[in-house]
Amino acid sequence: MKKQPNQVLPGRLWGVVLWCMLLLSGCDRDGSNTTPQNKYLVESKQVIELSREQLSQQLSALSPLLAGLVRNGVKVHRITYKTKNTDGTDITASGAIILPSTTEPAPMISVQHGTIRSESEAPSNFSPGTEAYYAGSLFSALGYIIVYPDYIGYGASKDLPHPYEHRESLGSASLDMLRAAKEFLREQKDVKWDERLFITGYSEGGYATMALQQKLEQEAAGEFNLRASSVGAGAYDKTSTMKYLVNNRTSGVASRNSLYLWVLLTYDRVYGLNRPASYYFKEPYATQIQQRGKDAMISVSFNEIMSDEFKQSLENGTDKGFLDAVADNNVYDWKPVTPTRLYHGESDRLVFYFNSQNAYDAMIKRGATNVSLVPIKGGDHDTSIDKFLLGTLEFFTSTQ
Fold first, then answer.
1. Most-buried pick from 41, 62, 253, 400 (CB within 10 A)?
2. What pLDDT is attached to residue 33?
């Protein structure tokens, strides 16, 4: 879920409070305590243990109401696990698992985080001020096992480039994290997983969650008891998004343009296109992008920086390599069987609302019966987060 680094936004505080109040229900089915040989888990290390009193004290700085909701302490573990890079090579990735200090069986929520720009924000680092540090530890203190994959490019794999908005690797890194988490939990004597699994994420996390859900249902259907999926403001329809960027004016906000750049440059690299910036972009922008990549700060509508040659090749379909790369990352046109909710702000100017509408329409057309679309009236990308969080937890607690 997208957050600014090292801060908790005051405007979202009451959303967090209400979310926590919704989390107070649990379930009773015991998981297995067997410990077969691990296939995915490489290593685990406890990062920190916070008592109920310590959590209450830290959270009281945000709100006495939050401190009053704490039921137990938590233990935070950093795990490393086996997965594959975008080229299919074996690598070691990482993530955080936050365990409640409770003897009651606990369900699991896998949270696929939104866009982060620094290593310190990776969940496994559990840095103060980040989502994992505050929200993750609080929710675990209410009796939930929280799983946060770092993705490729952060944590143990920080020396690799992050494959931003790459469907296959986001899905596989998240799935392999869940497999490693299952192996990790089998070794725990103090915490029992009741085997229920919920998945969620917002922005890049929403896209990653959709990719993970498709993998869970189509490639790992017998491995997990997936109960519900809640996704928010993900760019699921990459083809339509690219067409929109070519043909329409966008906000021109430099930080938003850098995310579009990041996606384009990732596909150029991952799919071996390896074209110069001058093919995609006009001057003086091409030189800036060649030098700074996704970190180039450009404050004009994104379609104004694209070269005429590139735009024409997309319009007439002659750049098959790039168009195929974009289409390979579509994750909207399939039939989910798990109860699924799509949340999206109708006025989102970063990840356009049609992504969720197109996903909903395509899924219904394919015969899906457990999918719902929740438009957030007047919501932009950032202002829709609170309603997404509250709706997600209401959805999860109502799905038994």
1. 41
2. 42
Using CA atoms, how far residue 10 sits from 13, 14, 15, 63, 386, in Å, is: 5, 8, 10, 10, 11
**1 occurs within a structural domain:** no
The residue segments making up the domain with residue 270 are: 238-327
Helices 167-186, 204-219: axis angle to 10 degrees equals 70
Co-location of 156 and 215 in the same domain: yes
What percent of the chain lies above the pLDDT cut of 70? 90
51 and 171 both lie in a single domain = yes
First-to-final CA distance of the chain: 24
What gap in Å lies between CA 107 and CA 399, rounded to an integer? 12
Q: Please write the tens of the pLDDT for every residue from 352-364.
A: 999 999 999 999 9
- Per-residue DSSP letters for 313-367? HHHHT--HHHHHHHHTT---SS---S-EEEEEETT-SSS-THHHHHHHHHHHHTT
- pLDDT at residue 11 greater than cutoff 70: no
State how far the Cα of 162 lies from the Cα of 164, in Å rounded to an integer.
6
What would the pLDDT profile of 305-352 be if each residue is shown by its tens digit? 999 999 999 999 999 999 999 999 999 999 999 999 999 999 999 999
Looking at the predicted structure, is the pLDDT value of residue 298 above 70?
A: yes
What is the pTM (predicted TM-score) of this model?
0.89
Which of 309, 327, 345 marks a domain boundary?
Answer: 327
Number of domains in the chain: 2
- 174 with 298, same domain? no
Query: With contact defined as beta carbons under 8 Å apart, do 198 and 229 qualify?
Result: yes
